[in-house]
């Protein structure tokens, strides 16, 4: 089971610490934990992720997940995001 961590923010204290993947691997050896340093390659890694932890996720990034890309199992089962980004978001 692949856990993808894509928590990157310009404010460094809001980023996932570098020790997080190692601790998760230690506690949950069945997980393939991948932590991205930026969102540049999220489309590639989300294809086979079953769990996504992200600061923000755009609809075009989610479209690359197996659940939407016409693949069979394993689908993206869980998305944990602080701020869902939308390309059509407007402010009041």
Explained architecture:
It is a single chain. With 92 residues, the protein is α/β, with parallel strands linked by helices. It has one domain (2-84). The chain contains 3 helices and 4 strands, in the order βαβαβαβ. It has helices at residues 20-27, 42-46, 59-62, and strands at residues 2-6, 32-35, 51-57, 78-84. It has a 4-stranded parallel sheet. Helix 3 (59-62) links the parallel strand 3 (51-57) and strand 4 (78-84). The longest helix has 8 residues, at 20-27. Mean pLDDT is 77; it is low at 84-92.
Could you say which structural class the secondary elements and strand pairing correspond to? alpha/beta
User: Please, how many helices?
Assistant: 3
Low-confidence stretches: 84-92
Number of separate strands: 4
Biggest sheet overview: 4 strands, parallel
- The whole-angstrom Rg is 14 Å
Secondary-structure map:
Layout: E1 2-6, H1 20-27, E2 32-35, H2 42-46, E3 51-57, H3 59-62, E4 78-84
Parallel strand pairs: 1-2, 1-3, 3-4
Keywords for this structure?
92 residues; alpha/beta; 4-stranded parallel sheet; disordered C terminus
Summarize the model shown.
With 92 residues, the chain is an alpha/beta fold.
């Amino acid at each position: 089971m692949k856990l993808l961590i894509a928590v990157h923010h310009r404010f460094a204290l809001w980023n996932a610490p570098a020790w997080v993947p190692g601790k998760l691997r230690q506690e949950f050896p069945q997980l393939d934990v991948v932590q991205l340093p930026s969102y540049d390659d999220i489309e590639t890694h989300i294809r086979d992720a079953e769990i996504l932890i992200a600061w923000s996720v755009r609809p075009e990034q989610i479209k690359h997940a197996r659940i939407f890309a016409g693949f069979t199992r394993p689908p993206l089962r869980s998305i944990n995001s602080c701020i869902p980004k939308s390309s059509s978001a407007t402010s009041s």
